[in-house]
Amino acid sequence: MKPDSLQQLARVRRITLDQALQSLAERLRRDAEAEQSVQAIEAAIVRETERAGELDASDAVVEAFGTWFSRIRKDLHQAIASREHAQAETARARALVAAAQSALEAVTTEKERRDEAASRQAQRREQHELDEFAGRSR
Question: Residue 37: which of 65, 88, 78 has the closest Cα?
Answer without folding.
Answer: 78
